[in-house]
Amino acid sequence: MSWERRDSFDTLGPKIYNRPMKKALITGITGQDGYFLSKFLLEKGYEVHGLVRRNSQMSYGNLQHLDKEMFNKIRIHWGDVTDHAIVSSLIKNEQFDEVYHLAAQSFVGVSFSNPHSTYDINIGGTLNLVNAVKEYSPKTRFYFAATSELYGATETKPQNETTPFYPRSPYGVSKLAGFWTTKNYRESYNLFMSNGILFNHESEMRGEEFVTKKIVRNAVKVVRKEIESFEIGNLDAKRDWGYAGDYVVGMWQMLQQDKPGDYVLAMGRNHGIREFIEAAFKHLGITIAWEGQGVDEVGKDATTKQVLVRINPKFFRPAEVDELIGDASKARTELGWEPKVDFAGLVKIMVDYELARN
Ligand code: NAP
Ligand code: F7E
Fold first, then answer.
1. Most ligand 1 atoms within 8 A of CB, residue of 102, 148, 173, 194 to mutate
2. How far is the CA of 328 from the centre of ligand 1 (A)?
3. Does the Cβ of 78 fall within 6 Å of ligand 2?
4. Ligand 2, atom 14: nearest CA belongs to which residue?
5. For FRET with 281, which of 2, 99, 187, 320 sits at 20 to 30 Å CA-CA?
6. Angle made by CA atoms 53, 63, 138, in degrees to the nearest 5
7. Global confidence as pTM
8. What is the mean pLDDT of the chain?
9. What band does 20 get if pLDDT is binned at 50, 70 and 90?
10. Active-site residue flag, 171
């Protein structure tokens, strides 16, 4: 960043600030949801703090896309969620009104190749947070970023808060532990701790390895003739995709209730990977025609017949989650949650951003 910041490496001793409305901590603030949640809370007048793990570039991730004034309002604390000492002293010294625990190794594919670090961050990190709240700041309201990956291979459709869990990856298993840890602390110690079981939500800030961003980025490159085609994994999976900007509102709503609880956030409609590819290219003026079977299937430009999309099995996962579709009736009724961006709107936001970016 080119402008000066006032970050804190030291969490010793209580910090005295002029407290505006409420004070919130976001772990995982540099990620996709961290960007939208910080913006949302700052607009509400919150004092926003973020826990950021150090990297060699001292980079602030997606926070760099906030306007300078907003960015400078965020109080950054450098630290890793797996570090029990910093998590405890931060929670103890700052006495947050709300903690949004979003930090995670969130990529399902990588969780198969890096299961240990996925467990350390997603389970150990979560335990550090809930335990610090219990010990040092029991009035703090706590949000845990659970996920539709808890449902995995369940056969029930659509999935809601009563659907049995059947995770299919180390990521899913780690989030299941986080879900139950949060619920167990809530029930054992009478703490305000809620789980948001969020289905896939995407945006212009989505990490580049996730399938929606990968498709959009590469489709724009194809249209610009920077590449001829790109490779993808399992085309048969279906996901219930929403817009991240809508989902962070639901996170906040969960912490404004009289009682804590567990809530599904989802659109209630799912779409295949082929459909997302078709929609992205359609927005760029290209109609996709599919030809072939299995790993030989290709997506062609229906007019020029050029192959634009191929399958590479290296993107397949050892175990796949074939289909997810959520039922967010509880959140709609109890929280008043109302997502605004539908599938077509999501694709448009993502493609337009990518077109404007380069
Ligand atoms: P994301 O973009 O991958 O962001 C993850 C964040 O966690 C980043 O800020 C990352 O920091 C941080 N982080 C990772 N390991 C950390 C560590 N050891 N210590 C401190 N920070 C660490 O994820 P997202 O899409 O915003 O998702 C937010 C949360 O919701 C995650 O917990 C995810 O698992 C969960 N979730 C996401 C979805 C979805 O569809 N997006 C759905 C359900 C649940 P760096 O910048 O340093 O990497
Ligand atoms: O994959 C298939 C892939 O990586 C979606 C995370 O935010 O949402 C996300 O997890 C689907 C899978 O997201 C490629 O096999 C095909 O079936 O975009 P994804 P995800 O695994 O659903 C949940 C709710 C979270 O909680 C997670 O944190 O797309 N797919 N071809 C591909 N996926 C990727 N990444 N790359 C491909 O080339």
1. 102
2. 22
3. no
4. 233
5. 320
6. 60
7. 0.95
8. 95
9. low
10. yes
